[in-house]
Automatic annotation (TrEMBL), chain B:
This is ATP-binding cassette domain-containing protein. It comes from Actinomadura harenae. It comes from the Bacteria. Keywords: ATP-binding, Nucleotide-binding, Transport. Coiled coil: none annotated. Transmembrane segments: none annotated.
Amino acid sequence: MSAVLFRQVRAEWTKLRTVRRWTLTLLAAAAAMVVVSLLGASGGSVQHAGGREDGPPTGPEGKKVRDGLQFVRQELRGDGTITARVTSLTSRVEGGAPGSKTVPWAKAGIMVRAGTAPGASFVALMVTPGHGVRLQHDFLHDEQVASSAKWLRLTRAGSRFTASVSDDGTTWKKAGTVTPRSVPATAQAGIFTGSPAYTEMKRNFGALSINDLPAHAVGVFDHLNVTGAHPGTWTDTKIGGPFMGGPPGDDPAPEVKDGSSFSGGTVTVTGSGEFGPLPRGSDLVQRGLQGALVGLLVVVAVGALSMTSEFRHGLVRTTFTAHPRRGGMLVAKALVLGVTVFAVSAAALAVAFPMAQSRLRSSGFKPPGFPRWSLSDPAALRAVLGSALLVALVAVLAMAFGAVFRHSAAAIAVVLVVVLIPQILAPALPLGVARFLLSATPAAGFAIQQSAPHYSFTSEACLPEDGCYPLSPWAGLAVPVLYVVAAMLLAWWQLRRRDA
Amino acid sequence: MEIEVDGLRKRYGQVSALDGVSFTVRPGLVTGFVGPNGSGKSTTMRIILGLDAADGGRALVGGRPYRSLRDPLRAVGSMLDASALHPGRRGRDHLRWIANAAGLPSRRVDEVLERVGLAGGAAKRRAGGYSLGMRQRLGIAAALLGDPRALMLDEPVNGLDPEGIVWIRGLLRSLAAEGRAVLVSSHLMGELEDTADRLVVIGRGRVIADTSVPELLSAASGGRVALRTSAPAEAMAVLSHAGGTVASVGADALTVTGLDAEATVAALGASQVPFAEVSAHRATLEEAYMELTRDAAEFQGVPGGAA
C-alpha cells in the first residue's frame, strides 16, 4: 500500500468509527444476523420414522451415493472388452402412454463394476435421451464423450478402462480413458438401463407444483459381445431398490416391471433407478445462515451513508483538499468499509452458525438422516466466511452507488432492488425467471451458502430458495464482485467528472 | 507561498460566474477578497483548491496547480464552509481524520485546538451542537492543522461574536506576520478594514479593484478637502482662482477638489481669508466599496455563483 493510500485508509477508518450512530448500526446488524439465524433455524421440524436403517450406500470415494439400475451381466476375469449396440432407448412413465414422456437422464449402456452391492466402484458408457453419450465412473465423475452414438465399447487393460463409440460398428472412435477407484481383476461386465423419476416442476407466482412420477427406461440392445475370460451366460440383477436414494415413501405397485428378455440376438432391458451423487436436499448450512440477508439490509444504510454524508455536509471538499486524487478516497472507503463489515459479519455469523445448527439438530435435523455440520467443515466455513464477504460486498456496493447518486435514499433503494428483491421474489416467480435473477443480480452471491457440491449430471428437484442456486458457490459470489467493480468505476468516473 | 490566479473563467450553464479573474496573494500579507454575495469569491476559492474545474485560466499555489501538490494541507490551509461537519462526530475527531489524511501527528490536533480556543470540553462534544462561532473556530483549526504556508478562509468572520471578531483579526495579523500568505473573503468591507493589507474587490465575476487599503481610500476620497470658514464667499473666490473647484455644503462649510489640504491652506493664508478648519475628507472603506460595487451589487441575484 502506498503511503498516500495508507493515510487515506487511516482517515476513512477514523471517519467511520467516530460517528456513533454508524457504530451502533453495525452492532445492530451483527445482532440481527445472530437473532434471525436462530429464528430461521427454529422453524420446522422433522420426525424420523425409524426402521429404515439402510440409508443411501457409500460410494468408493466415501460419499453417500445413489445406486439403482437393471444390470444384465456376467463375470469378466482380467482384461477384456464388452461391446453392444443400443438400438433404442424409450421412457415409460407411470400413468403415461409409452413414449409420451421422456426422462432426459434415462440411461442405457454398458458397464463394468466391482460387484452387485450398491455403491460398488464402476465404469459405464451410456446413451441418454437428453444429454448425449456419457462416460461415468464411481458415481461422482461424468463426461459427455459424444453427442450421439449407437455402438458402445469398454476395453479393460489392468485398472484402466478405455471407452470407444461408433455409429456403424466398424469405425471406432476413442472416447476417453478412466481409472475407477477399485474394480478388482474379477469384475461384473454387462448391459444396463436405469431412469430417475420423471419430475415436473412448475411454478407460477406462488403456485408450486412438483410431480414426481416413477419412470423406467426400456433399452433394446444387440450385437452383444464380450471378449476375455468369461463364462458366457447372462445373469439379470436388479441393483438397489426402485427408488434408491429417492425420498422414502409408499412405493405404488408399478405398471411396468423391471427385468430383461432375450430374443435371438436382441436383449430388451427395462430398468429404473438412478446412480450418481445424492441430490442436495435441504441445505442445513444455508438454513443456519439466514441472518446474513437481514444483516445485509442493515449495512446497506451504513455503506450508503458513509459516502452520501460527505456530500450532504460538504465534507467531501475537505476530503478532496486533503487528497486531490479522488479515486483514492473511493478505494480507501471501500477497503475500510469492506474490511470492517466483513469482520463484524464474520464474527456474528461464526457465533450464530453453531447455535443455529444445534437448534436444527434439536428439531430433528440430525445424523444419521442429516449431516452434522460444524465450522471446521470446509463447506460450512466457506458458507460462513462467504456470507460475511457477501454482506461486505453489498455494503461497498451501496457506498459506490452513494458516490454515483450523492443521495442516500437513491443509493439504498437501488441496492435493495438489485440485491434483495430477487431473493424475496424468487419463491414466487416462475422457475426460469427466478433462476435468471439469481444468477444475474448480486443476489447470486447467496450461492456461497450452498454446502453441497453441485453435480450437473444428476437429476434433482430442488428450488433456488432451498439452496439450489443456479451458480456454484464461488461463481455466484463472483457476480456481486463484478457489480462492485462496475459501480466503483462508475463512481470514480462521476467523481472525476463533476465539481465537488 | 504565493497564490496566483490568472484569467479564471467559469460558467454555470448560461450564467458566467467568473469572467477573467486575476490576482495574486502574497506571503506576509492579509489579502481581503471582497464582493457582494454571488460575485464569485467562493467559486474562485474552490477552483484554487482544485475542487471545481475552471473553464479557462489557471490557479497556482507556489507555482503549481493545487491538485499536483505533494502535501496539499501543508501548503494551503482552507476553510470554505464552517458547517462542513458531520453533526454526529466530535469536534476533535473531525480534526483527527483530517490529521490522519494529511499524515500529521495527533499532537497537531491539540495544538490547533489550543490556538483557536476550543481546547477543553467543546472539542469533546458532537459538532451538531456547535454554535456558528464554534464551527468557525473548528474550521479555522482544520485549516491550521498542516501549519500551512498559505491560508484561504471564506467568510471567517461570519457568525462570530464581537470577542471572536477581535480574536480573528489578531489571528489573521499574526498568521501574516509569520510570513504566510492569507486570503480572507467577506461580503462586508468593514470586516476587513483594520485587517487587510491588500484588497481584491470582485463583482459580477470580474476584479474591480486590486489595491492597498490606503490607495483604495484615497481613490474613493477623490482628493477632496473639507473647509470650514466664516467667510465662504471670499474663500470660494480665492480658491477658484488658485485652481480648485469649490462647492458649498452648508452655511460655513465648503468642499474643495483639485487642491490638496496644504495648497488650500496656503491660498487662504496668502489672501488672509479666515478659516476654522481644513481637513482632507476621509472616505470610509465601506463608502469606497459601495461606490465600486454599486453596479455589481445590482446583480447579486444572479444564480449559480454562490458566495
